[in-house]
Amino acid sequence: MSVSIVDLVRQGFSGDDVPDDDLLRACVHCGMCLPTCPTYRLTGEEASSPRGRLWLMRSVADGRLDLLDPEFDEQMYQCLNCRACEAVCPSGVHYGPLVEASRAQLEQHRPRPLWQRVGRKVGLDVPFSRVGRMRAMVNALRLYQRFGLSTALRKTGLLRLLRFETLEAMLPQISQPPLVSGEESWTPGIVDDHVVLFNGCIMSTVFSNVNRATGRVLAHNRVAVTVPAAQQCCGALHVHSGMMNEARKLARTNIEAFEGDGQSPIVVTAAGCGAALKEYGFLLKDDPVYAERAAAFTARVQDVTEYLGNRELVAPTHEVKGTVTYQEPCHLVHAQRISVQPRALLGQVPGLELVEMKESSLCCGSAGIYNIIRKRMADELGDRKAENVVATHADTVVTANPGCHMQLRTSLRRKGSAMPVRHIVELLDEAYGGQANEPHQSSVR
Ligand code: SF4
Ligand code: SF4
Fold first, then answer.
1. Domains in the chain, start-ordered, CATH in brackets?
2. What is the pTM of this model?
3. Any atom of ligand 1 within 6 Å of the Cβ of 29
4. Across all residues in the chain, what is the average pLDDT?
């Protein structure tokens, strides 16, 4: 067989995080995943579908396509990693780890220009690899919001110059100081169970009100809640960006941070974090020291709606009058296959009516940092989602993931709607009397 010069220079997968060949070859090209894929629905192009992307991955694995081919790069990063394809695949193609490994390959072998490397370091690794840094940033943002600096800075054009405008527009009002891990806990009078809260980086800072509401709701349900001190960010954004070594470092830190709590369930308030934590076993499967510990950690992780939805709730005491519609976070419905419990919980809030929206489980376009780096497609998906939300005429839209929360808020505002966006737990908290009815919260500060 003759080998051409082109074949000799063609680069396949190599080094760490090579996409799993068996997983890759599980695709039987049936096409059942195509209608569920948001990028295929927007473009109508085979290459932008799960089947098309799997074919590209396989072409690189088989040496028919260069790893550094621009089309491969484009498609691996155009994908939202929403996992909708996985949920409908009859062959059980575990698509998420394949696209994540493909991105890891690109990060290892494709030199990025200096400005991109600096951007990733400053925008991703610095704030997300130490929760203390995120806290400092968010404290500064709270002051920024409190003193109304946004309007003044917009007038100077500085926000646009620093490319901060998109990010700034997505931020909700940060209502409470960060919840510092290890410094607060909730202990009910009667304790039926004990859980440990995964505090997260965005959830413990921008959405600390949701984590505190979670502590109260669990305590009302006779569940004691502690927040292990040494925990860090889950590493989901690192995994999605192909930064596997950074993600593994965070995973090891979190495994150690939660080992002291024995077998208590690890409750998570962000769908994206929960999906990442449930894959620590896969992420560290080849680590001789952490593989077993990662699998044990993963087995303990539950989304807060999963944990509460599988318990018999203590009857809520307050009416929460109104209508809500539910936007399903991709990493809850597709990656974790949790869809029934959030609706069942909403159904137990007295006075609340759930109105289903069209395409509730179609990605809203948030997808980690997708709505920052791929704004056009993210905006198209966000607009579509906002239209579906508004069409329900609900008073409030609820979700269970910070990325969806921010994307929904921005998309609704763009469409001229001021509809509030809330986490499911916030409504449950109201149904138990909210902050005014704090059950045995303690602080060690
Ligand atoms: S549904 Fe599964 S087997 Fe069918 S084309 Fe999509 S990934 Fe391949
Ligand atoms: S993860 Fe989502 S965007 Fe990516 S191929 Fe699958 S369905 Fe399409």
1. 14-109 (1.10.1060.10), 114-170 (no CATH), 184-309 (3.40.50), 322-431 (3.40.50)
2. 0.92
3. yes
4. 91
